[in-house]
Design brief:
With about 210 residues, the chain is of the alpha/beta class. The protein has 2 domains: about 130 residues, 3-Layer(aba) Sandwich (Rossmann fold); about 70 residues, DNA polymerase, domain 1 (Orthogonal Bundle), CATH 1.10.150.240. Helix content is about 45%, strand content about 15%. Helix 6 links the parallel strand 4 and strand 5. The radius of gyration is 17 Å and the shape is globular. It starts with 7 loop residues before the first strand and ends in a 5-residue tail after the last helix.
């Protein structure tokens, strides 16, 4: 990622904010689940997992399995998912690249997600987007909650202010805990009815960001 110094930042969630992989990775997960004789999941199930940590996903997807066994199945699903995304990528939201280019003229751009590191790499590398982002952090990289990773990203890049863009109530809570404003990506998976700033599309962000940082 780039080293360009910027004092104001826009930090993004990944799933439901920058891209959507749900429908594409469900078949890969279901192959693993079928091999274990476990119930199949739907795209709606996958949407509900987005943004959660591995423990949270396992608790929802495999509630009857012991934690360690559930995490082992989850790890297999992630391996299958990574193999698919390296070859096919996900679905980017409309106007994503041109909006990132516009924001990057003024702001530091970062990503903080509860995904594993290879998942973030697949997003950046398959779609050729790495040059737009200055830094990123994942739960898989630090094993820390999202709010701590937001603060970590800001501290190591000496950001004076930043806004977090995400699509779930957890994203909004993480921004509050990190002490920064939040923009709700209403086009994503979640619902944040009390959000002060709302992006109905990714292209709305250049008008919203200056109101927050």
């Amino acid at each position: 990622m780039n080293d360009t110094p910027r004092k104001k930042g826009v930090i993004f969630d990944l799933d439901g904010t920058l891209w959507n992989t749900s429908a594409r990775i469900v078949p890969a997960w279901n192959e693993v689940l079928a091999s274990r004789g476990l119930r199949q999941i739907t795209t709606e199930d996958m949407n509900s997992y987005m943004g959660k940590t591995p423990d949270g996903i396992v608790a929802m997807m495999l509630p009857d399995l012991p934690r360690e066994e559930g995490l082992a199945v989850f790890a297999e699903c992630v391996t299958a998912e990574d193999h698919y995304l390296r070859r096919h990528g996900g679905l980017l939201y409309p106007a994503l690249e041109e909006t990132l280019a516009l924001l990057r003229e003024t702001y530091f751009l970062g990503i903080v997600s509860n995904c594993h590191t290879a998942y973030l790499d697949n997003f950046l590398d398959f779609h050729g987007l790495r040059h737009y982002f200055d830094d990123g952090e994942t739960f898989g990289g630090t094993r820390k909650p999202k709010a701590e990773n937001i603060r970590l990203l800001m501290e190591r890049n000496s950001l004076q202010s930043a806004v977090y863009v995400g699509d779930t109530a957890l994203d909004a809570q993480s921004a509050r805990e990190a002490g920064i404003p939040f923009i709700f990506a209403a086009y994503g998976f979640g619902d944040v009815p009390d959000a002060m700033y709302v992006a109905q599309s990714f292209a709305d962000l250049p008008a919203l960001v200056p109101q927050t940082v």
